[in-house]
Amino acid sequence: MGLYFRTPQLGWAVGSGGAIVKTVDGGKKWQKVVSGTTVTLSGVFFLDAKQGWAIGANGTIRRSQDGGQTWQQQFVDTQVPFYGLSFVSPGEGWVVGGNGTILHTKDGGAHWTDQASKTSAALYAVQFLTAHHGTAVGAVGTVLMTKDGGVTWTPQETQGAVTLFDVYFSDASTGWVVGNAGAIFHTTDGGSHWIDRTLPCNRTCTKLTDLLRVRFTDPQRGWIVGERGMVYRTIDSGFTWTEQGTVAAVSLFGLSFPDGTQGWTSGEKGTIVRLSTSH
User: Fold this and answer.
1) Which DSSP helix (H) or strand (E) runs through 141?
2) Is residue 203 within 8 Å of 243, Cβ to Cβ?
3) pLDDT more than 90, % of the chain
4) What is the mean pLDDT of residues 158-171?
5) Phi/psi zone of residue 120: left (φ > 0), alpha (ψ -120 to 50 degrees), beta?
């Protein structure tokens, strides 16, 4: 369901049943590795070629220090599912999940402390651009921002009660959140104001697609993936989004661009698809 590419050759994907797979040849071959768990894993991130974390159901956080060949459980005092993670250094990172949970570590995950989100909404994604500036998004239109490393989280005004599944800032000012029923919100002032760029329902549209992941490879070019294998692309900083069609018959939960030339998306039933950025 989740995946992360460190370079165009080196990537990892995680999914149901504790599945973790790794590629070192740009996805030609995927090697199964022993994760040590059977819970559904929703997210994976590697800070470098060696150090990575995987998160999932039942309060699961697992860490690897050898490029994903072996994984160790990290202990936390909660059973909520985790959905999003962000690390800014080998020591410091955050995970977010059910019931408004935000956990923070400064020692690579040996110890995790709870940060007060002041919400009980499920949080589905988190992104820290620096050790101080971070954003978390989730259910009922929740957007939380911090400027002090999560000591205080401040709710931001978006629109309505849509469920927001992902957030991505390309720099400190410019950011995007996406969610259910085609929801897209855009900020150019670091999250103080959000502009509604929700996709219109065109003539062939019977139901607006839930948008699950957003990534930009540069300030102009961005991608969104969603349910039913839908992919959207922008080349004008998100003012217009072009439907690229379906690349799979399943919903897509992972999106990673190791460089500006190629990307990957992953979804249900072990689906992993390469996206070409050239056309």
Assistant:
1) none
2) no
3) 85
4) 89
5) alpha
